[in-house]
Amino acid sequence: MRHRTLIIMAPVIIGLATLLSVAPSQAQLGGGLGGGLPVDVPGAIGRVRDTLRDVTAPVVEPVGDLVRDVRSLARERVERLTRVVADHGDRVEWDDERQPAVRGEVLLLDPDPAALETARRQGYAVLEQGALEGLDVSYARLGAPADMPLGRAVKDLRKALPGREITADQLHFPSGKVGRPVDTRPSSSALPRGGTVGVIDGGISGSERLAGQRGFAAGAPKASDHASAIASLLTGAGTAKIYGADVYGGDPAGGNALAIAKALGWMQGQGVPVVSISLVGPANPLLARAVASAQGKGMVIVAAVGNDGAAAPAAYPASYPGVVAVTGVDGAGRPLIEAGRATHLDYAAPGADMSALVPGKGRVSLRGTSYAAPLAASRIAARRATLGSVADAVKATDSEAIRGAKRTGRGVLCNVCRSGV
Predict the structure, then answer these.
(1) How many domains does the chain have?
(2) Which range is least confidently modeled, 77-81, 201-205, 226-230?
(3) pTM of the predicted model, to two decimals?
């Protein structure tokens, strides 16, 4: 029998926010893609208006235009994810919650012989079985029967294995963009420097601070402008060592939860104390377990809230408990209008009016919460290098956070770190 790949794991992931149709009191991000999350768009618009009132610099765009931007961000997110599935149907498909996921693959947490035998009897093939390096989390990756849609495969296997954690392997996406070449550079930071930061993203190139790099996807490590810009920012912020984990490579289904979880395990094995993740996706039980295990071993995980706007579903891994969630601000200290949200917010850091060096492109402009997260991570890592404990490092980091506009958490970090080298 031919099989497609399926990954059996923990509870179902958060629903995909789909087409935005605004009701009088609430918009349902679900449209034609099936059951999405209810999103309070009027509430999100209220948050945007509050943000505008928080800033002292003049706002050029009319509030009405900004409100339309909030709605369009939600639509654009759905359109972008729909294109990913349509363009890469050989590797990507919708899961049972209408999230893009690795085609035909299901994850099972804590597999045992009895569960695996049941899965085989249902027509699922065991493609991989193992444990995440250094994290004490076991899983199995299963292939669904040929021609069975992934959503149905997940549901059917849950029925066959009640009470077990089973899920698709959802994809995560970068939360920032590299823009046009620029000529100017802001002043460098005078803050304490040093420390080690791990970057889970694409492949890093052109960084003299890169202490180690490993791929977790087909064709990885493969140079990525996004990841290379992050490494440039970390260098400019004074980070002494950078470790890179490429979870994308050349695979259209890269950025999946299993790859990120494996990358965390590798970082743990390398003794990386602070890890920055500028990727966003839905909640995933395997990744949640990996995050909790790494945190329990002393790792600080910093993540971006994404750029899908205030009406988008809460972003993960930023929303997992204990993860340092970071949003972005522009040069005037204003929260980015496109910044997404998490279930909690810890800090803000520069996310616009900034630049980095990217091999082959020179100095380029950057925008997005992708670039705020590593800058916040650089501050925690610098403090940890001298103070040791997580609690002391976070306390010291809090002391340098600048309180400003609302929706910046405990304050803005590394505000002068707007240039990478």
Answers:
(1) 1
(2) 77-81
(3) 0.84
